[in-house]
Amino acid sequence: MTNNDTIWINLKLLWVMLTGTIVVLLVASCAEAPVDEAQLHAEVDAAAEASLQAYAANEVEAYFEFFTDDATILTSGGEKQIVTQYYESWKQLISSGGGVSSLDADAARTIRLSEDGNSAVVLYPAAEVSYLFPDGSNSGEFSPSTSVWAETWVWSKINGAWKIIHLHYHSVAN
Fold first, then answer.
1. Phi, psi dihedrals of residue 103, rounded to the nearest 5°
2. Which domain holds residue 118?
3. Is residue 29 in some structural domain?
4. Is 97 left (phi over 0), alpha (psi -120 to 50) or beta?
5. Each residue of 87-130: pLDDT tens digit?
6. Is residue 98 part of a domain?
7. 137: left (phi over 0), alpha (psi -120 to 50) or beta
């Protein structure tokens, strides 16, 4: 065997090894990364808490940043709304001087994650919310109202951010 033959054999072996390594790396990069459930749970919990705090503080824009543009809302009375309707009603209430006067959501929320880690359902068993509503007489007076709500929020991770795609709330006591 000549020196040239040895070089060609070594080059062919090197080529096979490099090709095999590239194939293994490509297959490994296509494999699904394991879902870090604790991390996802913490992300959803933080987003849920931040949205709840924005709601409690009557921060309309901050609260609605958590919703997708096509989110749906199912109200206590069974009315289905799109998020723009919900937004407009909250914006009107807050601009009139009304809104949330207190919120007690100390009951533990339950978070259920999808297997792929891109969706979550957040359940609030009870949140006591006190509101101020304009009394309708243009007098600048407000009527207080307190409700206890049970809520189900459906969240989806979209472009790296957790967003509400559906909200269902209903009264559990007055």
1. -145, 125
2. 37-173
3. no
4. left
5. 999 999 999 888 898 888 777 889 999 989 999 999 988 778 88
6. yes
7. alpha
- Token pair listed for 118: 């891109």
64, 83 Cβ separation under 8 angstroms: yes
Tell me the per-residue pLDDT of 144-164, one tens digit each, with 9 for 90 and over: 888 888 889 999 999 999 999
DSSP, residue by residue, 63-121:
HHTTEEEEEEEE-TTS-EEEHHHHHHHHHHHHHTT-EEEEEE--SPPEEEE-TTSSEEE
Which residue carries 């062919």 as its tokens? 12
Residue whose structure tokens are 């991390």: 39
Q: Which backbone phi and psi does 60 adopt, to 5 degrees?
A: -55, -50
In a domain, residue 22? The reply is no
Measuring CA to CA, how many Å separate 120 from each of 44, 111, 114?
A: 7, 7, 6
Q: Which residues contact 87 (CB under 8 A, 6 or more apart)?
A: 60, 64, 67
Q: What are phi and psi of 3, to 5 degrees?
A: -65, -35
Q: How many domains, in total, are found in the chain?
A: 1
What are 172's two structure tokens? 């559990």
